Amino acid sequence: MRSPYFPARSVLFKKEPNGVTYRVPALLFLSRSRSFLAFCEERLSPSDSQAHLLVMRRGAFHRNYVEWEDMRVLGTAFLPDHRSMNPCPVYDEFTDTLFLFFIAVLGHTSESYQLATGNNLTRLCYVCSTDDGVTWSPVTDLTTKVIGDTIKEWATFALGPGHGIQLKSGRLLIPAYAYHIECKECFGRLCRTTPHAFCFYSDTHGRTWRFGEAVPVPESVECQMVSVDEEAGTNVLYCNARSPLGHRVQALSLDDGAAFREGQLVQRLVEPGYGCHGSVVGFPAPLHSGRSLDDHLALKPLHPSRHWTSAVSGSSPTPSVATSSSAPNDPYFLTPTWVVYSHPTWTTGRRDLGVFLSLFPRDPDSWRGPWVIYEGPSAYSDLAYLELAPSVGAPPAVAFACLFECGTKTAYDEICFSIFTLYELIDNLPRDVQPGQNNGGRDGQRDAASGTDRTGGHDVRRTAASHEAPCGKKRRRKKSKLTEMCSVC
After folding, report:
1. Tens of pLDDT, residues 298-308
2. How far apart are CA 375 and CA 353, in angstroms?
3. Catalytic residue at 271?
4. Which residue in the list 177, 179, 238, 380 is annotated as catalytic?
5. Which of helix, strand or coil describes residue 425?
C-alpha cells in the first residue's frame, strides 16, 4: 500500500508556556509583492472568551522558500474594552488597498451569553493598509452605519473567518454569519436563534458597505465564498459553510452575494460534532485547448508526488499544457473555476486535516478527496491560491498555501503553514472513496495496513518516488488525463 505523503510545514504561531494561545488563522497572498500575510487571534487561553488581540506575520515569497518576519501585534485593530476576533482580510486589486475586517466583542462576553439573552455585544470593524501590511490605519467601526437597527434582530454575528474575495466587477466580499432571533422567552428559554450565512459587500472600493440576504435554509455558520466561472459562460457565487447537521452546507448566489438561494447539505463533506470551520479557494482550471472538462472528471492513478519546490527549480521538464488563454475560441466560453477545500476529516473529532478538490462545485457530489495533509489533532484552516513560474517560457504552476491549526496533544498547540501544488493534490487524492468513508474508521484501517504511527505532527516530507507492492516489485502508475492538465513539474 502506498505510504502517505505530507507537505512540508513551518510553525508560524506556537502556544506559549504561560497559556497564551494562537487561534483562528487567516491567510492572504499578495501577488504584487509576492508576499504572504498570516493573521490569527492571540488569546490568553484557548477559550473564545479569552481572545485578546490580533497578530500577524509577513512572509516574503522567494523562488523556493518563504522568509517570515517576526510576529507583531496589530495595535490599531481593536476597540477599547473589547476583544478582537475572526480576522478576515481582503485585498482590493484596483486600489492596492488591504482591508482587515474583524469583530470586536465587549469584555469577556461569551457567544453563549449573547445567544441566550439576545443581547448583541459585537461590533463590525476594520483597519486598512496601503503598503501590504507594513503599516495600518486607525480602526473604523461600521456597526451603526452598515448594520443599523438590524443588530437588534441578531443575537450575535461574526465574520468568516479567513480570507474575503474580490469579484471581477471590483465588488469586495466579506463572508459572515448571524444568529437571527426567532423569538424571546419562548418555552422557558430566554431566546431562540437560528444561524444563517451571508456576506458584507462594497461596490465602492471600501468607502461604503452593505450586507446581503442570508442563506435561508439550512442552518449555516462560519463560511467562505468563491466566485465560480462556468464553462457555459455563467458565473455564480459559491458559499461553503459550517453546519451542526453533520455535513457542510453549500449555497449559490446569482447576484454576487446580494441574496442566496436555499442551501443544501454536501454529503461528501462531513462535519465533526457541532462542526468546524473550513476553507475554500477557487482557481482557473488548467485545461488543454479544445478539450472538454467532462473528459477529465474521472480520476485515475497518477505519477508519484513531487514537492512544490521542484516546480520552480527547473530540475525537471514541465508538461506541455495550455493555459486559460488558449481556451476554445468561443466568445461565451469561460475557463471553469475549480475549488479546493480544507477541513478536518473525522466525524468524531477535529482531527486529520484533509484537502478536497471539486471540478464542478455547483454539484455537491463532485468533491474528490480527502488528501490528508496533517495526521493528528487539527481544526481551523485558511487557503490561498498562487502561481509558480518554473522557468522562462513555461506555463505557471498552480499551487496553494494552507495556514492551519494543529498539534500533537490538541488542535490548538500551533498554527502551521504549508505549500503544495495542484499536481501533488491530485496525485494524493484517494481512489474510489465513497461518501462517508473519510472518517476515523477508514483512517484507522489505513494506518493498520500501512504501518503508519498515528502520533500526529508529521514534519517529515516523504517523497513517493516509488513504493513496494506486496510482492516486492515496484509499482508503476500511469498518468491520468487530469494530471496532464496540471502545469507543474
Report:
1. 444 344 445 55
2. 7
3. no
4. 380
5. helix
